[in-house]
Amino acid sequence: MLQPGLMMDLPLMLSSIIEHAAAQYGDIEVVARETHGPLFRYTYADCAVRARKLANALAGLGLEPGQAVGSIAWNNHRHLEAYYAVSGSGMVMHTCNPRLHPQQLIYIINHAEDRVVLFDATFAPLVKGIAAHCPQVRHWVCLSEAVHMPAIEGVANVVAYEDLIAPHSAQFAWPQFDERSAAALCYTSGTTGNPKGAMYSHRAIVLNAITICSANALGMSTKQTILPVVPMFHINAWCIPYAAPIAGTKLVLPGPKLDGASLYELMESERVTVSAGVPTIWQGMIAHVEQHGLQFSTMRVTATGGSAMPQSLIAKFSDNYNVEVRHGWGMTETTAVATMGSLEGKHTDWTPAQKHALIARQGKSVFGVEIKVVDENGATLPRDGASQGELMVRGHWIMRQYYKAETSPLVDGWFPTGDIATIDAEGVMQIRDRTKDVIKTGGEWISSIDLESAAVAHPAVAMAAVIGVKHPKWDERPLLFVVRKPGQTVEKEEILAFLSERVAKWWVPDDVVFLDALPVGGTGKVQKGDLRKQYGGVFS
Ligand code: AMP
Fold first, then answer.
1. Residue 440 bears catalytic tag
2. Whose CA is nearest to atom 15 of ligand 1?
3. How far is the CA of 523 from the centre of ligand 1 (A)?
4. Fold of 367-434
5. CA 154, 155, 156, 157 torsion-angle sign
6. Residue pLDDT, tens place only, 61-107
């Protein structure tokens, strides 16, 4: 017979994170780029005070537990306060991606039934355009002082955040409730159909945040300073805004300035040691430091994910700048990071090239998450690094049902990710493609990701994308799109010759199309659907 454990049973609450930081790391700094330009600086103790004031203010507006508060905002300190005030009060922090089409924004604000929407001044024109279509929103709160709030004609009930919280008490008794209650909501930016909502629980977020502090993940401690470039409006900025106060890590929030020069300057001035961002951010950063002959004084680890980080970029960070890349994988439905690749003790003597090849893969599932790959019939494939199939995932912070959906997408308790992957004998996973992007040619599969990584290794190539184009004989053949670096004149023949040396002959694309820019969607991913619509005809 099982014995009961004799431990206290306290719910995992997000409010406890900011109170922990205020009590234990009250003097550790949070630095944020204000939307109107200057840097703002305070401590976790100050942040907790203002989160409590906001919690009182939201209650004063008549909001109740279970109701949703939307945000259309950059990574900044007021957004951070809202993360804690909203969820800590038992309400749902609904982070909206400002890059969604306005129609989709209207859809998600109405679907989530947001009662209040917090927005940065940058997005005032967006708010002006959508407010009339969001009848359930009673208050629009501009995350600024009144003096920096732009006039928004025609929108009623707009208030400046500082005016909203100023009269309220800094004391607030955070409610304690079931840790499985909803804390935050984020919608997938699906390319077809309406966005779908992933509703995160307190328990899921707390467990994920503790996990990503670990040395094998982001390695967070009081000795580190972290700058999440990953946005707070998309999968909780990988839960870094929760993990940093747990570990007492100084937090640097970059606001709207996400170009290579601004980020570099902030990293240097705030002595940032760890960062996290999508590969395009790191491409911009490397271009800046290369152009100006700079080095990083304190940056040592950069985590990346959201799309595949090309091996050539990993090599540059490591070999030229002494910055270790950690390559993670996750999706809106997985709260934050589900797998993370990092170098292990046994890799110390590996050659740089071996290390970079390992980090170009998406790593091992972190504790709390399990992964497997399955064939078309759902049978589990061997962990041999070669058998590829759909990646399935389950764990403490993996979604089981979309918000307000009637059915669950789970298959035997596992979430089907729509990604094609391999897993090797050591558990290292590699994303080969999206199920809808993989190119089927003569019965074999070509990974568009691998071809793109090979193409961006060419010194004249800024960005690359590959789609499958119908072919009468081979079913599909790859077509490569290239955006040249400024001032470069590289032509098709040179690129194809470059690729021939790096991939199998039958992988070499049938044609190359040069574009000024690739179509990019709300979360920074290339919209291959758009490319297919325009170029996906038939190869002869
Ligand atoms: P989203 O829900 O918008 O965050 O998109 C999640 C999708 O991004 C995943 O299903 C993958 O297709 C892709 N993705 C995330 N991380 C990586 C990565 N490290 N490498 C390749 N694809 C990735």
1. yes
2. 306
3. 10
4. Luciferase; domain 3 (2.30.38)
5. negative
6. 999 999 999 999 999 999 999 999 999 999 999 999 998 889 999 99
Spell out where 91-142 has E strands: 92-95, 114-119, 139-142
Mean pLDDT check: name the lowest of 68-82, 386-400, 430-444.
430-444
Tens digits of residue pLDDT in 253-263: 999 999 999 99
Point out the catalytic residue in the list 95, 188, 334, 335.
188
- Let me know: does 513 contact 269? Beta carbons within 8 Å: no
Integer Cα distance of 303 and 287 in angstroms: 18
pLDDT of amino acid 190: 61
Mean pLDDT, range 6-14, rounded to an integer: 97
Distance 363 CA to ligand 1 centre (A): 13
Look at the domain 9-28+44-216 and name its fold: Rossmann fold (3.40.50)
- What pTM value is reported for the model? 0.92
Ligand 1 centroid–CA 258 distance in Å is 20
- For residues 355 and 189, give the distance between their C-alpha atoms in angstroms, rounded to a whole number: 33
Report the nearest-CA residue for atom 1 of ligand 1.
331
According to CATH, the superfamily of the domain at 439-535 is ANL, C-terminal domain (3.30.300.30)
Q: What confidence tier does 192 reach under pLDDT thresholds 50, 70, 90?
A: low
Q: How remote is the CA of residue 249 from the centroid of ligand 1, in Å?
A: 26
Whether 367-434 shares its CATH topology with 439-535 is answered no
Contact yes or no for 309/360 (Cβ under 8 A): yes
Look at residues 88, 70, 71, 74 and name the one whose alpha carbon lies nearest to residue 32.
74
Active site residue: 350, 445, 492, 525, which one?
445
**Catalytic annotation on 250?**
no
Atom 23 in ligand 1: residue holding the nearest Cα: 307
pLDDT digits (tens, 9 = 90+) for 449-487: 889 999 999 999 999 999 999 888 888 999 999 999 999
Residue 249 among the catalytic residues: no
How far, in Å, CA of 83 to CA of 69, rounded? 10
Domain ranges of the chain: 9-28+44-216, 367-434, 439-535
417 carries an active-site annotation:
no
